[in-house]
Amino acid sequence: MEKVKAFAPASVANVGCGFDIMGFALGGIGDVVTARLLKSDQDDKIILGGKYGTLVPSGFEKNTAGVAVRAFLMATGNEHIRLEMLLEKNLPLGSGLGSSASSAVAGLVAVNELTGNKLTREELIPFAMEGERIACGTAHADNVAPSLLGGFVLIRNNNPPDIIKIGCPEDLYCAVIHPHITIKTSDSRRILKQLIPISDVTKQTANVASFTAGLMTGDFDLIGRSMSDLLAEPKRTQLIPGFEKAKKSALAAGATGCGISGSGPSVFALCRGKNEAEEVAEIMYKSFLESGLESDRYISGLNEMGAHVL
Amino acid sequence: MEKVKAFAPASVANVGCGFDIMGFALGGIGDVVTARLLKSDQDDKIILGGKYGTLVPSGFEKNTAGVAVRAFLMATGNEHIRLEMLLEKNLPLGSGLGSSASSAVAGLVAVNELTGNKLTREELIPFAMEGERIACGTAHADNVAPSLLGGFVLIRNNNPPDIIKIGCPEDLYCAVIHPHITIKTSDSRRILKQLIPISDVTKQTANVASFTAGLMTGDFDLIGRSMSDLLAEPKRTQLIPGFEKAKKSALAAGATGCGISGSGPSVFALCRGKNEAEEVAEIMYKSFLESGLESDRYISGLNEMGAHVL
User: Fold this and answer.
1) Which pLDDT belongs to residue A1?
2) B-side interface with A, Cβ within 8 Å?
3) Does domain A172-301 have CATH number 3.30.70.890?
4) Class of the CATH domain delimited by A3-167
């Protein structure tokens, strides 16, 4: 095999009450990597393309895909292999849609295939997390795991990764709005409270358990009333002008629940069925426009397949 | 109908990582109330029986069953009704087995039946919680809800009660050891940390979500590795001499997980199948004996029926 092309989807992390421990894969949008073997005396090379290709580093040791793939090659006894990777960077950076994870995962899936498919999707997770470390300073799994595995995942542990894929209702759809502002993950982490009153902790755990049960039984009403976050959303609201108004409009239009995707600024709403998701996306789009922000919007069912070779 | 007799099971609250938000009903052990209508000019009366009958108050306004039943009669337009309740107090007080909840629930189920079955089990929850308020100062649902509804429940909210019953594997068994010491719920709450580092909060939420998923899919391995509590157990361990040693012995003997039942001193272990639960109970019993504590032991499957008229 001379070259392999792979797609890795965008993802929504945190998902309301699941701060740092939940994520799911979106359909349709994501980064694409085409990997090609070079001769062993050539140098690793990343060629950048796609809408956001000019915004990411092309050095292997600085690009999330490069770092992840190099870690994978080291660990699988292939450190001698030299690669060219064409990265179609389709996801906006700092959007809260798992952009850095998507590049890393696409690179890994392509290169894993190129080198004989030695590892399972689960086994690729730690290497994708190395990409996250270079992108934002911490090796977290809440975007790479859903992008790799597809579906809705729980991150029970980051190190070693303990990832649980849970079932979700088939008619669960997601409306995503990406307002055109940028938030650094590091900024959005810095503003969080470091000590949480125990009464808030039990409210959070109660919602997390109920949200999990709601997803697994397809109880949209329970999903909705459990989607309340006391850890991140109350603080991060201030970073996204118009978020509260957009959330209210989404819920008023029938969305099951609404929250900040990852560390923002993207906002997602869980909906029942595609039509509802389309309506909710339209309403949130207009709401942000009224708040002075242009935005992109995406509609997606839960992407059960995750990253794959094209 | 002149008189009605009802049974309400003991329960395990907290269940490892589910501090204040989870509970399940045990089989076989519980309090029994026989309620009989009196003439309207007679006075309410509680007659106490059972192994622990001498240890609870007989005044209607101080007894958890009396308080719960009186609140129920008030709310259902039956404040004129006068009752005699024979309370067979079979559960030890301050044991961590939901003793006060069991009395209140048995009283409510008997009197609800006696007065025409006006309320559902779910609707009885707030009145049973009034019994908890008189018993320990806070109206919490994590014992009354499983005792009333049976099975394994999540307490998403106490006020108003939002209780979710979740599915569990059929071969889930529980070994319970009640060492002969008494812990006041108020003492066991006082020693808890009031502010929790956010990193511990995400570990707790990750375990709570994974534990819920493990129960609902019957994944014993996941149940076991999620049964880790950072809120209550690290502090309450000091109140139960020999707990850590007993827990280690239970896990070494194959128990899926082990923790403190409610605010203790009872200790429970989740097991796969009845035989394993019996072995684990024997081993924990011996372990506590070596630590200088005599104890009672109970083996139980998950009691799906909950409280019922006899």
Assistant:
1) 66
2) 17-22, 154-157, 162, 164, 166, 192-198, 201-202, 204-214, 216-217, 222, 225-226, 231
3) yes
4) alpha beta
